[in-house]
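P.,

For your records, the input lines for the assembly:
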Amino acid sequence: MAPKTHMKKNNTLNLENKKFIVTSLAPALISLILITVVPFAINIINSLRNYYLADPKGPTFVGLENFKQILFNDANFWHSLWITLLFTAGCILIEFWLGLYIAGLLSSGGTFRNIIRSLLILPMAATPVAVSFTWKIMYSPSLGIINYFLKLFNINGAAWVGDPKIALLSVILVDVWQWTPFMMLIMLAGYMSLPTEPFEAATVDGAKDWHIFRYITLPLIKPVALTALLFRVIDSLKTFDIIFVLTRGGPGNTTETLNLYTYLKGFSYLRIGEASALAIIFLLIVIAISQIYLKYAGLEFGGSN
Amino acid sequence: MRKNKLKYFIQNIILIIVGIWAIFPIFWMFSMSLKRRVDALAMPPRWIFSPIIDNYIKVFNSQDFTRFYFNSILIGLFTILFVLIIGIPASYTLSKMNFRGKKDIDFWILSTRMAPPVGILIPYFLIFKNLGILDTRASIVIMHIALNLSFAIWVMKGFFAEIPKGIEEAALVDGCSHWRAFIRIILPLVAPGLVATAIIVFLFSWNELLFAVTLAGNASKTVPVALYNFVSYEEIDWGPLSASAMLALIPVLVFISFVQKQLIKGLTLGAISK
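Structure tokens returned:
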């Protein structure tokens, strides 16, 4: 008698479990469909249309015309893609090494280091529009504080975001200011979870700092670092705020990333068809870059723990 | 030994430079907001000046800033509400239960991070336009939920994972229904994590520009949008501009000073606990 009731209880427990799983996931899954599948489907439809928002006649079907136009006839697209890659590479390289270095300096803990760590949260939490605008003031050629500091060291200032040659670099520097702390925090968490034995052994053996870093720290911190990098790569491909406020893609189109180009195409020029096609191409590029990265880094995205 | 001391000293100097570098733009913004026009434009810059609050008064008088502030707070709170209601149960189930298709859902949630926001913005802009709800706070809330939901689920999954196994089993054996056990026993255990998530979601919504600047007109303008318009129209008037930028930073500064630990945990958890 006893085992049977036990089994019955187990069955109801299973049913109860299934009910819970379904009811707890349903709202989120429906929302996710609305966030991903629905907009993607609408983009596909619109990308196949000649859709000018100001045209009272409405959209007409044109097949793959928009894609052909973008891929084979649109120098601005390829230019914006190049700018996006330059921007991302510049940001990631600087932020990664700087973040890793600062995390190393902060990893020994103590009050002073904790205060510095707290200060470093400010750039990543501060409203991007507000700080971008402050950078704009600091970058001002004649009245900006940066050129003033440079002058103190007898270095000639620059027009920064106003100079086509260094506008992109100036925007990258603001991104570095904003997001190096994020890299640093994640690496710091990585440092904190490192086992102490290998370091003690190495120190006893009289290993040099650089060797400890190269052969012990770096391999141990690699999984955390690679994940942090992936997130930053994806996010910097999509950067909007600081570029929009600092340069709006200018001067000329020297800082016009793919994200900005897509946005302007849709909401300044009201070319919804082309903008939708650009959004799809943009998504495919992000996926491709992430996949290449994952393969190259030997990471598995999601699933495994 | 002496060499070590020297090394430590140099490290400290570098860290001080890093600290100054991190806060200088915000310090500079603050000092600008307290300067008279002549002081703000003075070259070499004036480090010592008699501070005034005229800029703040001007912002409140000319810019309707209180209304934008109210819009931003309201949009942030509603975003939190919906993100948590939709996200909490899902993140718990994804973290604690085993079922078929779990890996796929995990992957799906994570991959939404790859989608460029502009690709979501264009279709929803058209939908809102057709529904006639452009320039409403609701439309911005919907977009901010879309922007935050998968991130929030991911972060909360990490918090749920920290609960020791067996607690919910014990509750279930006691005859609680699963939902009851979840609400009564599990939720209180992760309350700090949920607060951290709520704050991060609020900050993201508070700071967000792309969706707000596209969807908001005069009626639903948020603080970042107001600031952006301000920047484009009154580029020369740095004082009031800095004052409104400082006002935009107030919630950020408050949260950083009071719940810093949870904030760091939430922000890094989203990236580490893959």
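Two observations worth noting. Chain B has a mean pLDDT of 87. Chain B touches chain A through 94 residues (CB under 8 Å).

Regards
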